[in-house]
Amino acid sequence: MKCFAIILVLSTIAFHEYLCLGQIPSMNDEHCVWYKVCVRNKTKVKNCAYDGPPKILDSEGVNLLKKWCPNLIPKNKTEDVLTCCDIEQIKDLVNGVATAASILNRCPSCFANFLQPICEFTCSPHQSSFIKVVEKKINTLTNRTFVNEIDLYITEKFINGSYDSCKNVNFPSSGQLAFDLMCGAWGATKCTPKRLFHYWGDESEDFVPFQINYIMANSTDPINGFKPLNPRIVPCNESIDGITSPCSCIDCTSTCPKAPPSMLLQQKFTSFWDTDKFTVFMFLIYLICCVLFVIWSTYCLSSNIATKTG
Ligand SMILES: *[C@@H]1O[C@H](CO)[C@@H](O)[C@H](O)[C@H]1NC(C)=O
Ligand SMILES: *[C@@H]1O[C@H](CO)[C@@H](O)[C@H](O)[C@H]1NC(C)=O
Ligand SMILES: *[C@@H]1O[C@H](CO)[C@@H](O)[C@H](O)[C@H]1NC(C)=O
Ligand SMILES: *[C@@H]1O[C@H](CO)[C@@H](O)[C@H](O)[C@H]1NC(C)=O
Ligand SMILES: *[C@@H]1O[C@H](CO)[C@@H](O)[C@H](O)[C@H]1NC(C)=O
Ligand SMILES: *[C@@H]1O[C@H](CO)[C@@H](O)[C@H](O)[C@H]1NC(C)=O
């Protein structure tokens, strides 16, 4: 009996140990996956691998973050701002989204949704809970290790909401939609949430600094030890901060005024039988005239031809 109890205790410990070691350390042990820039050339910027704790951001960085990534500023104003990015990475982020900003900023809610995951993966102090580093490489000039490819766990709800908030945004100077420029070869008509994020993570595009595989999850339940990111979506008919106005009707169909459905139904039923009897009558007259005209012209034409040939 005693022996059995000991075996039970031992196997419980072993099982516990197995679970804890077998799992990729993440949720309970959040840390960074990178800090600082390690490779920079004309088109690509890659971050140095780093798996320590987040670091305190300086005040210049905090000011940039307030403007571009306000959700990463802690609610408690007296707390230090801890991030996995330094000021240089934030400046790269701002430069990197400049083109997108110029296209999307006519619809601030859409642009905020676009920025949110970029802010999160670049700077979040909880990076390791939703980012899996797939590939690290060594910069042979400096011997420093950099991150070359990541899997980013994110909910489908966010992907879809982000897509929906931007899909009707116009790009007036060419008479196109924003997604004609931002969904790669698919264009706006064939764009889907998945295709959009696939394109945004494809390193072969110049604007993507390193390969980002967006892994879409059904829920926020952990997958492979990673907790999918689920940022709040701002629908395009809502203000991002209560001050900025929602996106206009031409960029966001849900902002457009809608006729109350009951009135529409009424119109449909009453108009045909009551108010618009006259219209129906006139339409019938018109139809009869058309038929008469066709008959008359066919007759004239054939008799004309007959007189000419005859
Ligand atoms: C920039 O770096 C990437 C990755 O290290 C490399 O594939 C690419 O060819 C480089 N581009 C230029 C212009 O040097
Ligand atoms: C805010 O953070 C400071 C410093 O960490 C702490 O002393 C204080 O209790 C926090 N306040 C609230 C409301 O959490
Ligand atoms: C990089 O590492 C290799 C071997 O570890 C060494 O021979 C070389 O001098 C190092 N280069 C630099 C720039 O530190
Ligand atoms: C997201 O949109 C796709 C279609 O693009 C749909 O198949 C899927 O069910 C949607 N998922 C959620 C969670 O809304
Ligand atoms: C999403 O959830 C449904 C049921 O909740 C499940 O059947 C389906 O396999 C899930 N899909 C993925 C990709 O996890
Ligand atoms: C935005 O649109 C959605 C769906 O069309 C609607 O449910 C929601 O109430 C709207 N929000 C505002 C603030 O009008």
From TrEMBL:
InterPro entries: NPC1_N (IPR032190)
Domain Niemann-Pick C1 N-terminal, chain residue ranges per copy: 30-267
A single BP term in Gene Ontology: intestinal cholesterol absorption
One cellular component term from this protein's GO annotations in UniProt: plasma membrane
Superkingdom, taxonomy of origin: Eukaryota
First and last residue of the signal peptide: 1-22
Pfam families in UniProt: NPC1_N
A single GO molecular function term of this UniProt record: cholesterol binding
Transmembrane parts of this sequence: 278-301
The entry's keywords: Membrane, Signal, Transmembrane, Transmembrane helix
PANTHER family to which the protein is assigned, alphabetical: NPC INTRACELLULAR CHOLESTEROL TRANSPORTER 1 (PTHR45727:SF2)
Identification of the protein by name: CLUMA_CG014191, isoform A
